[in-house]
């Protein structure tokens, strides 16, 4: 498991900034005015590996994008 804390960074661009299409080109943020905001209520924990093999199998069976895992021969131990 890993704990994550999302942050929002707001960067004030100078009027003489160059743009690549609609995207500003920021070469060095250290020279820009910026603020970082952290909202503690957005903190979350992500599970990177399940210890229970039955839960792993359930997650794979329920995930429509996990076709490669369902076709794998390594899952025969779980059945």
TrEMBL record:
<dbReference type="InterPro" id="IPR001699">
    <property type="entry name" value="TF_T-box"/>
</dbReference>
<dbReference type="GO" id="GO:0007507">
    <property type="term" value="P:heart development"/>
</dbReference>
<dbReference type="GO" id="GO:0000785">
    <property type="term" value="C:chromatin"/>
</dbReference>
<dbReference type="InterPro" id="IPR036960">
    <property type="entry name" value="T-box_sf"/>
</dbReference>
<dbReference type="GO" id="GO:0001708">
    <property type="term" value="P:cell fate specification"/>
</dbReference>
<keyword id="KW-0804">Transcription</keyword>
<keyword id="KW-0805">Transcription regulation</keyword>
<dbReference type="Pfam" id="PF00907">
    <property type="entry name" value="T-box"/>
</dbReference>
<dbReference type="GO" id="GO:0000978">
    <property type="term" value="F:RNA polymerase II cis-regulatory region sequence-specific DNA binding"/>
</dbReference>
<dbReference type="InterPro" id="IPR008967">
    <property type="entry name" value="p53-like_TF_DNA-bd_sf"/>
</dbReference>
<dbReference type="GO" id="GO:0045893">
    <property type="term" value="P:positive regulation of DNA-templated transcription"/>
</dbReference>
<dbReference type="GO" id="GO:0005634">
    <property type="term" value="C:nucleus"/>
</dbReference>
<dbReference type="GO" id="GO:0000981">
    <property type="term" value="F:DNA-binding transcription factor activity, RNA polymerase II-specific"/>
</dbReference>
<protein>
    <recommendedName>
        <fullName>T-box domain-containing protein</fullName>
    </recommendedName>
</protein>
<keyword id="KW-0539">Nucleus</keyword>
<keyword id="KW-0238">DNA-binding</keyword>
<dbReference type="InterPro" id="IPR046360">
    <property type="entry name" value="T-box_DNA-bd"/>
</dbReference>
<feature type="domain" description="T-box">
    <location>
        <begin position="1"/>
        <end position="71"/>
    </location>
</feature>
